[in-house]
What does this fold into?
Amino acid sequence: MVKQEAQREQTASMEDYLEAVAMLRGKGKVVRVSQISRKLKVKMPSVTSALKKLSEQRLVEHERYGHIKLTPEGDKVARDVLRRHKALTRFFVQALGIDRETAEEDACKIEHVISSLSLERVIKFIEFIEACPLGEANFPKRFKYYLEHGQPPEECLERSVRGGK
It folds into this structure.
């Protein structure tokens, strides 16, 4: 059996709350319980309960009936969740041709359980197919070269210079 990656400290649900705060805050708004409730489609008492736990863990600052702010540590966790979510969504849409709505839903589920190694490989794969599109000869060999050298093989670079022809 493959060695298990160290468990993340937050549950999937708690990560979803941190991610929601970060996304709502990113739109230039102050974040309120009602906004999180709508975004996550949960009842307000559930949000309040989760925020209490996150506050005890020093990941959010929240006074009863007040605005919600991420602490520096909470912001770090939220950014990591967003990074996983965006990378997976991008992979599903660009590499697998899945519609954005389905890709977003699947990414939201998988972002909580994917290992760091798998996530980094997904990110590298997306970077690679942007330089070396799928469907060309020797794709697996060229991808392996990219992983080993950190850049696409010469034939891909030549192709991108010629404008994808």
Summary: The chain has eight helices and two strands. The first helix runs from residue 12 to 26. The domain at 83-161 is CATH 1.10.60 (Diphtheria Toxin Repressor; domain 2).
